[in-house]
Specification:
31 helices, Anoctamin_TM, 890 residues, two-stranded antiparallel sheet, alpha+beta
Amino acid sequence: CERERSKGISSSSRDDNSTLLNPVNILSLFCPCRQGRNKTCGLCFSDGKSHIDYILVYRKSSSQSEKREMFERNIRAEGLQTEKEASVKNSDLIYLKLHAPWDVLCCYAELMNIHMPFRRKIFYMHRRHRFMSRMEKCINKFHGRLPRKPMRFDKDTLPDLAENESFTAPFSRSRIHHFIIHKKDTFFNNATRSRIVHHILQRVKYEEGKNKLGLNRLLSNNSYDAAFPLHEGRYRSKNSIRAHGAENHRHLLYECWAWWGVWYKYQPLDLIRRYFGEKIGLYFTWLGWYTGMLFPAALVGLLVFLYGLFTLDHCQVSKEICQATDIIMCPICNQNYLRLSDSCIYAKVTHLFDNGATVFFAVFMAVWATVFLEFWKRRRAVLAYDWDLIDWEEEEEIRPQFDAKYSEEKVNPISGKPYQAFTNKYSRLIVSASGISFMLLVVIAAVFGIVIYRVITISTFTAFGWGLIRNNSQVATTGAAVCINFCIIMLLNVVSFLLSPCATTEQPRTESEWENSFTLKMFLFQFVNLNSSTFYIAFFLGRFTGRPGACLRLINRWKLEEVSHYFSFLWGDGCLIDLCMQMGIIMVLKQTWNNFVALGYPLIQNWWTQRKMWKEHGQRAKASVPQWERDFNLQPMNAYGLFDEYLEMILQFGFTTIFVAAFPLAPLLALFNNIIKIRLDAYKFVTQWRRPLPSQAKDIGIWYGILEGIGVLSVITNSFVIAVTSDFIPRLVYAYKYGPCAGQGQAGEGCMMGYINASLSVFRVSDFEKRSQPRTTGVELFGEAVKYCRYRDYREPPDSSEPYSYTLQFWHVLAARLAFIIVFEHLVFSIKTLIAYLIPDLPKDLRERMRREKFLIQEIMYEAELERLQKERNEKTKKKEDGAYHKEWP
């Protein structure tokens, strides 16, 4: 490597005195590297030959010039070539262009163990590929009927990705003749070149000292304003891509992936991986896989909803509620009397969600989550093989922050590396856990504040003089509370990101440890923040209100919030309409807001920057701005990488599975959102963000474990929703034990006759406590004073020996609910475990293919080495013969 570095220094001697070009010259040098159709303005040095692999941006007025100059000298000492140019629109900005020569690329490709193609694959195709080819043939039969070719790509528009069709091996300069090198300039693609240059920049010193190295520290102390690899030219072209082909890979990605007109087509994953790297490629692969798996879940959820819609007129419970004009309902706490038939519409609406298919759908979604995760393992394994990531291991490098803090305190006597003392580590861990606990308490306090708001607001609305507001007080209160809750959720999300640097005060040792710690803590906070109000509505709302004559109050003044009588016969305690409203509003609002922020913010920022440039320099500057300046004007990628993108989808996955028994349309809403999000994220990456540094990854990291945890939690919550919040168990107990079909083993709609009357208890009006007496006696509504009213509970009548005590039916229902929770959880967990056992993580044909490839690689390497030795022997023999011939010639 030292010899190669010295060669790099000699080859880049012209850059020791880096040229600073005048902005006026840039206007005249519109396209200095126009050497082919794919060469675009601003991708090469001024000589038109050296490709720009990386860009560093700094300001002349920066006070860190000494560090920067030493850093740049060391860059050139490593063999990189440099060239400086001033900004077109801001003379204070300087762009430092970096180029890695062939020798430097070969040297560091070997050090970084980068896999490169060395021989074409000649054995059988993968079974998946054979299946896809058969499917394409079937589609081609109907090609005349499908002119737009839905759900597929034209292979003619995609480049020939040789690395996916070749054997690969770690690059070695001693065996360079084994690799497929058609042209040195294109052997290492742009993503690999940028990764190599970034690797060098992270290890170059900017000051004398053990820890004074790395580009990240220069970015943090404002020595450089930005550092990024270049996009491969413009993403739009005046010429048609079908007639003239793609100008570059960015243009191809836009036309085949990021353009909104191709929302219904498959993603070009290999091209995404080649342009953005494996980590971003895996994210879009996972997002596409998740979206595809949502299709069956959304279809089944829609069928459950339609089943409730088509059986609406046949529901015996709804019929009895609509016909119960003579049943007068008790006001629980200081409200007016109502007829039970007034809740007819709400009973029918609730049947859309509470029907016989609810339990089946809950079991289906639990199984679906397991199948989704297990088949993702297989998909990831196939992708890791195709992308040569099977044997790749992430480098466990010490974080610069950890090294800077503990390198001088204590060093491991064996490894010689700094380490954190036990007391220091756990004291910091306690501080970090305390911070997260405090934030969770803030979330709980916010939920409690919403509860108090609902209690006060509903008390105000029920006393309102206007009948429209008084009669719909529950709906108005719930809708307003959900909107306020959404605003609080978004506000706490912003606060959490502002405080995110304090989330990992325990100072993890490596980057992967830091990322896992940060991800887990931030997800925990975001999950509790988003779902705490939903858990309250599902399991606590309306359960501590007491009964008529014994109303529970808050601070001895306001009654605790109960469910309105309109909902009192829907889903057990009547909270499911509130739960559906909560989930529907928050899911729609949050997804809409996230999509707007994800695309709207960078779009507005970039538009404003371009507008200022056009205003200052005119349209001529718009056409002559080089690629590096156009990229600098784009928005940088999030500092936390793909954290926001994964977090949004994981939270959506939780919403889709945890309370799916209460809201079967959640998978359908998630599907519609994800179809939009794939193209929105693609458009953002291709057009609105600077090109992120391509990085490698073989899986989605800690997010997979979080998905498994959500899958387990969804089984528990859905069992409680069906057993506790739903009216499924009380109806089942009545049908088999107390109804007209009791003892016959039947549970049809005919067996539910009389269910409403059996689930109502009788209350004597004279037993109302003084401050909870109704406002009216009922003469205004019913023509006579009300003496007895009904309420939802299983209690003895007032004339019995133990008035208002629980009946035997109440204990039967309670025992059935507990039994259902136990049986449901054990059954579903058994099914999940069986499915996970039956589905292997690695497909059988892929395992055979990997073994076959290892055997062929060894054979090819042996033959290639044997051929090289034979060639050398022949050359030596020829030289000897030539030498003997020349001796005999005189």
